[in-house]
Design goal:
Length: 463
Amino acid sequence: MNHISLRAAAPPPGRVSTVCVVGAGYVGLTAAACLAALGHRVHCLERDAEQVARLRRGQVPIYEPGLDQLLADGLRSDRLRFTTEAREAVPGATVAMLCVGTPPRPDGRPDLRQLAAAATEVAAAATGDLVLAVKSTVPPGTGEALELLAALSAAPGCRVDVVSNPEFLRESQAIDDFFEPDRVVIGADEPEPAEAVADLYPPSWPMLRCDRRSAELVKCASNAFLAMKISFANEIAGLCERVGADAVPVLAGVGMDHRIGSSFLGHGPGFGGSCLGKDLSGLIATAESVGFDPALSRAARDVNAWARRRVVDRLAALLGPLAGRRVAVLGLAFKPGTDDVRDSPALAVVQGLLDQGADVSTYDPVASAPALAHLQRDDPYLAARGAEVVVVATAWPEFATLDPVTLAGSMDGHLVLDLVGSLPPAATAAAGLELSTLGRGTPDTFHPVVVAPLEWCLDAALS
Ligand SMILES: NC(=O)c1ccc[n+]([C@@H]2O[C@H](COP(=O)([O-])OP(=O)(O)OC[C@H]3O[C@@H](n4cnc5c(N)ncnc54)[C@H](O)[C@@H]3O)[C@@H](O)[C@H]2O)c1
């Protein structure tokens, strides 16, 4: 179902509420537009005045399919308003959803300063009792900390409760995820504030109610598990290269087991985006802060660092020293369907190449990285002009339909390193290009891997 039919199919919530949504980024803007589509009155508080001005004009500042339509609907019906002023956004609201950023600090701990500032500002603007629903991803215990901060700034007589209501949306499918969630998690230590948040959602949606710390941990643990799955796939892909196997059928076969499932079991240049790495590091930091050893989570992070590093290592193995070599990187977004480049593996590849002195050009259909804007070209063939090697780093569907003959004609070399399995092998080879992929070894009969099983067979036969 696409978001339009989902929206039409979404049952109405228990009652219509006035909600303040704090932060109009990927999560906040999606939540605000979708809550308005459910019939709520939404006041979206965003500190960036330029962003608010654009949103009031109906311009979506991020790339998220379908969001422009919902924004237009919300503005037209006047159920969705934007402001930079807490004193306009908060009074009258029963719930304020905190959707501000919790970026990682250099040591991996989440930076909770935006959240603390938002909780303080919103609590200070409350003119009656208010529930803060925390959608931002936070370590367990944050709800208690925010409740203390809010109590310090709330006006006398105004009670501020904090409920954990973590967000699970995936960028590029955010609207579908909102209207058809796997679960809505509501964590609270008191029933009334939990009810106020639950009332925002249609009662038929799958709901998990629990205590606040557990709800906070559901989100971090889910992302750590997804990160672990990807790192496992990359570890198996590395092993495939060594034993002469092919990671594509191996991982397909593993994923066909319904107990395992195929999603997040693809190999490539590692996981990225604004959430997986950050939330994995956050979980590790939380565990370490209470003296618990998060061995699996740490291993997932280490394997991811290796998965990124090995791309540049592979290019150096194929080309020799990379200084001065012309490399085109196709894709900057951390995955297709989004313009988000936060912690993008594609950007890590570009940076790794620049660190080695390579001469890099890039292309992405929607994403850009301001610091690397001078490298960006307007189409993939321009990016490939004069390149010795083309690296496909994001699985945008348009890369699967590139014309290999035109690509080959633009390049000076003939090597393509496809990190995400986008290019059709036969057509690419027919254009005279040499296609290199990750996770595929040479299935040579005299491969060293045969030695150990042969010995073990002979041991058995001779004993
Ligand atoms: N992006 C995702 O896919 C995703 C998915 C699930 C959960 N999350 C979590 O949700 C949270 C938000 O993520 P995001 O990607 O939407 O972040 P974002 O950086 O895109 O958006 C945050 C917005 O909040 C605004 N803001 C910050 N402080 C403010 C304040 N005091 N008042 C008003 N506005 C303020 C910022 O200007 C910004 O526009 C993070 O904790 C993230 O981990 C993100």
